[in-house]
């Protein structure tokens, strides 16, 4: 019997929360995010704003140049987190098999419920709206890949200035047919860079993948060719779950003596990032949020984090984000007692096809080789060049 998997995606979640607390914003073109005076970016924008070409991740300066009448609203992350938790509680009333993949998205396995998947989706959507006043779109299918594709399809069809609140169901057995005419960039995990590479190879639609033999695909896409063929047929056997309760993966160190040398701290960050990446890869997981923890000599402790467009378990990506967060807080001369690196929004590793480029593939193979050497000869057998002097005056917590 086919599984019944739902993918719930809150519509313009941050903006919906702002409208909930300030009803005067409803129907207005507005965006949440950073200041236009700095390097602020749009974290979310209303559907009315999208009518003017505004989208998330756009620099706020650019958004205001594109549409000067755009209203900007300061983000209220505490409220976003609280309402996200309430949404997940509503989902949890349906089934214990809830996998939250971001602050506004989750998969649900409702296979044990007697109702049809579409009916469950409609009832869940209505519950979230009635209880919290938040719009959401839901895709339902026989697996996670297709449920996510269904949600994306429903949202893509929506062109109005109001939240889509779309519900799209892909019946079991129709996965291959559904995907056949979808443009290649619609495939979950394929970004603009990878889409161009597919198009250069003559692959315009997802169905085009299946027109080529595996050997031909391997020439272009290497070891992931087989996975590509499976995705093009809508095959995905991954379970919905919490990965044995793992919510985050992190490492931190306390210095023997408080450290005020920026390069020494960055070197330590690099080592911590490598450990976090290795632990994720060992468990076949990746994280979508990278965070750092800083403790000053007076024991004041702060945390800072950033959410990535794609989940990762690559050392370089984790370090790049962690070092950027650190440098934003760095005060020359101010010493540090403890520093930590971690990842959250943990999910099962699922190859992001948007990362099909030479630099990614080169690092993936290098990390694989390093992991194997460390497993065989010990953790200190080999490590990537740090680009700074070796700094070892710390202990691991």
Radius of gyration: 23 Å
Question: What's the number of structural domains?
Answer: 4
Give, in order, the helices and strands: EHEEHHEHEEHEHEHHHHHEHEEHEHE
Give the neighbour order of strands across the main sheet: 5-6-1-7-8
Q: What is the fourth-level CATH superfamily of the largest domain? A: DNA polymerase, Y-family, little finger domain
The CATH topology of the largest domain: Dna Ligase, domain 1
Question: Averaging pLDDT over every residue, what do you get?
Answer: 86
The dominant shape is: globular
Major beta sheet, specifics? 5 strands, mixed
In whole angstroms, the N-to-C terminal distance is 48 Å
Give the topology, please:
Blueprint: E1 5-10, H1 13-21, E2 30-33, E3 42-45, H2 47-50, H3 60-66, E4 71-73, H4 77-94, E5 98-102, E6 105-109, H5 117-132, E7 136-141, H6 144-157, E8 167-169, H7 175-180, H8 192-200, H9 206-209, H10 214-221, H11 225-232, E9 248-259, H12 262-283, E10 285-295, E11 301-312, H13 315-329, E12 336-348, H14 358-377, E13 394-396
Parallel strand pairs: 2-4, 7-8
Antiparallel strand pairs: 1-6, 1-7, 2-3, 5-6, 9-12, 9-13, 10-11, 10-12
Helix pairs in contact: 4-5, 12-13
């Amino acid at each position: 019997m086919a599984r019944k998997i739902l993918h719930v995606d809150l519509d313009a979640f941050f903006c919906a929360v702002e409208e909930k607390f300030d009803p005067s914003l409803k129907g207005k073109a507005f965006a949440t995010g950073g200041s236009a005076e700095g390097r602020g970016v749009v974290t979310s924008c209303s559907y009315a704003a999208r009518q003017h070409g505004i989208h998330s991740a756009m620099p706020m300066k650019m958004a205001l140049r594109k549409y000067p009448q755009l209203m900007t609203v300061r983000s209220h992350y505490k409220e976003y987190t609280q309402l996200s938790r309430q949404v997940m509680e509503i989902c949890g009333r349906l089934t214990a098999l809830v996998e939250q993949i971001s602050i506004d998205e989750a998969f649900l396995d409702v296979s044990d419920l007697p109702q049809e998947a579409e009916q469950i989706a409609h009832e869940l959507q209505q519950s979230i709206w009635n209880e919290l006043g938040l719009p959401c779109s839901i895709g339902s299918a026989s697996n996670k890949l297709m449920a996510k594709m269904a949600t994306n399809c429903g949202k893509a069809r929506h062109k109005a200035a109001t939240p889509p609140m779309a519900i799209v169901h892909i019946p079991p057995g129709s996965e291959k047919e559904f995907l056949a005419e979808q443009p290649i960039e619609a495939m979950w995990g394929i970004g603009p860079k990878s889409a161009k590479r597919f198009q250069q190879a003559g692959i315009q639609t997802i169905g085009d993948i299946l027109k080529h033999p595996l050997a031909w695909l391997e020439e272009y896409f290497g070891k992931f060719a087989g996975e590509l063929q499976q995705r093009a047929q809508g095959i995905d056997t991954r379970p919905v779950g919490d990965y044995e309760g793992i919510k985050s993966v992190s490492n931190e160190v306390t210095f023997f003596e408080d450290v005020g040398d920026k390069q020494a701290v960055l070197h330590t960050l690099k080592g911590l990032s490598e450990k976090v990446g290795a632990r994720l890869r060992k468990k076949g997981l990746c994280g979508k949020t990278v965070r750092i923890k800083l403790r000053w000599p007076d024991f004041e402790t702060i945390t800072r984090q950033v959410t990535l467009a794609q989940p990762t378990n690559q050392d370089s990506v984790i370090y790049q984000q962690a070092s950027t967060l650190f440098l934003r807080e760095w005060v020359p001369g101010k010493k540090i007692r403890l520093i930590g690196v971690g990842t959250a929004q943990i999910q099962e590793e699922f190859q992001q096809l948007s990362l099909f480029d030479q630099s990614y593939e080169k690092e993936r193979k290098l990390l694989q080789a390093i992991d194997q050497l460390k497993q065989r000869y010990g953790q200190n057998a080999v490590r990537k060049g740090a680009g700074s002097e070796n700094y070892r005056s710390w202990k691991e917590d």
